[in-house]
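User: Can you predict the 3D structure for this chain?
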Amino acid sequence: MRPVNLIPPEERRDGSAQLRGGPLAYIVVGALALLLIGVVLLVDTGNQVSAEKEEITRLQSEITATKAKAQRLAAYASLAELHDRRVSTVTSLATSRFDWERVIRELSLILPDNIWLTNLTGTARPGVAVNGAAGISLRDSAPGPALELVGCARNQDAVAGFISELKQIDGVTRVAVQASKLGSGTEGSGESGSTSGSCQTRDFIAQFEIVAAFDAVPTTEGVTE
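Assistant: Here is the predicted structure, written as structure tokens:
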């Protein structure tokens, strides 16, 4: 008997038909796969862009908030700066001014009865021009405030006692004698001064020129003399 193919002609598939349809199917599947990958990449990129935009928005909000806070604190910063300037000014004044009133008051308390002054000059630093100043050259060796005292004493012992008393004034660091000369012309110490001997009415009276220095006091420009 001869075999008979009972499959309808339209449904029959021979080898050549399989060869013609096989590669096309792979191409279509590959194209779909590439399309799917492209869609995934596009969605992922879109998500990243959205996240970065959100981060930028958040940072901008933080910057705006920080600026607003800085503006609120600017007033406090100005007050702090003003406070610092005032403290600096007060400190400068406190260190540059010298309490001459206290010094003169203490001098009046320790001035002995056997001493009389003919010239008293107080300057905050050397080189200060004062009308009628004593002009004692030893004053230049004291960089800070100093008293220049010119006068007479009953004798040389009185001069020595006056020097000891001057050292008791608060703030005096040293006392220097420019001259201490008796009326007869005999010098007790130092060189002869330039001051006239109007107070030397007797030979035993000693005329002196003394500088009391306050070396521990800070010196600055603009000190009140």
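The beta strands are 115-123, 146-153, 174-182, 187-190, 206-213. Residues 15-19, 185-197, 221-225 have pLDDT under 50 and may be disordered.
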